[in-house]
């Protein structure tokens, strides 16, 4: 007989059990469920709703169930529907009628909201820790490559010379925003649903502030009707993961390109590469490719839950049971993606000579010539036209603009003086505006991220 089956005259059909049950996936929440129940029973005892001895028996029984689950000794039964009913049924088996008192002043609605919210809050913190470690890798790569030249691109076309450190710190900036999103979500959603009961609170003299403190929440929720059907916290972590994976996918795409024979900017470690079943020479960038692929999966999980929630009236509806599988899936895949991305970056080899060679294609110092002419008092549009002629000359000679001699440049415009330096190194070093690629600015950015990491780790 179901624990809720008093008004029913027939047993639930086996097909209904299979369709209705969330136990196959929500047993992931067993730790949060047991911790929440222990806090709830302690509060009931403090308020005189149950005795201290009953609360002790409930706690001992719940801790015994926790051991059974951890040791794979717990017997799962699909007819129990969910983790909450499975644990409560086993508790009654262990301690008798006292176990039936645990659900006083509580509903499965606030119970599942509590368990899932706490699970998500923990994952927000887990992501923030992994992201910090990833940012540290970018900083370490940057420190070793302040003067390593790389073609900066727009439209995937060679644009201006930048340092590889600068490029890596652009990703550090992206992932810093991801860190902040996960932390903001933790702070915003650190709210206790327990005590909201089904939707309207409870007539029992409970103390929601006690359970708030014992479970580590910041505050109890202010409106029970909203709380039991609120899944914003789940949508937020799915959105945060989608953003995180989008950033990881952008980097993955560049790593895939950079590791090709055409680029050869980096060489991925054998530890994080795979081979071909038919072509012995192949070394495939499967790690970044999988990260790129799993990003679409993260987007799908976000859209699925947004669609589930979009038309739900207040308060709880069974549709909301569809909130967990996508979150579990996105969390699992994103956590391993960020971890293996970190290790792949740490172990890759940077081919500085090939990056420098690539900088000598595409006339990366063209803007420098235009800027030089503007400083000579020439209007920018005229300077742009003169520079275009210089690029055409270099093209005709089959060389890079930076390789033209001063005499060749003066043949286009006599106002070009001996002070012109179109070298790649000078171009990169000349860009000194705040946040730019010049070495002193890159060093400032490295110091910024080191301070950020120190502050967050402290």
CA gyration radius, whole angstroms: 30 Å
Number of helical segments with 4 or more residues: 18
Could you describe the largest sheet, including whether it forms a barrel? 2 strands, antiparallel
Helices and strands, in N-to-C order? HHHHHHEEHEHEHHEHHEHHHHHH
Rough shape? elongated
Cα end-to-end separation? 53 Å
Strand runs, count: 6
Strand line-up across the major sheet: 1-2
| Helix percent band | 55-70%
Global structural class: mainly alpha
Low-pLDDT parts are none
On the 0 to 100 scale, the average pLDDT is 95
Strand content: under 5%
Describe the structure concisely for a colleague.
The chain is mainly alpha-helical and 458 residues long.
Summarize the topology.
Blueprint: H1 14-20, H2 23-26, H3 30-46, H4 52-70, H5 83-95, H6 108-143, E1 149-154, E2 157-163, H7 164-189, E3 191-192, H8 208-214, E4 219-220, H9 224-227, H10 232-258, E5 266-267, H11 286-309, H12 324-347, E6 349-350, H13 352-359, H14 366-375, H15 380-397, H16 406-410, H17 424-430, H18 439-457
Parallel strand pairs: 3-4
Antiparallel strand pairs: 1-2, 5-6
How would you explain this protein's 3D organization?
With 458 residues, the chain is mainly alpha-helical. The protein is built from 18 helices and six strands. The strands form three sheets. It has a two-stranded antiparallel ribbon with strand order 1-2. Strand 1 and strand 2 form a beta hairpin. Helix 6 (108-143) packs parallel to helix 12 (324-347). The chain is elongated, with a radius of gyration of 30 Å. The chain starts with 13 loop residues before the first helix and ends with a helix. The relative contact order is 0.10.
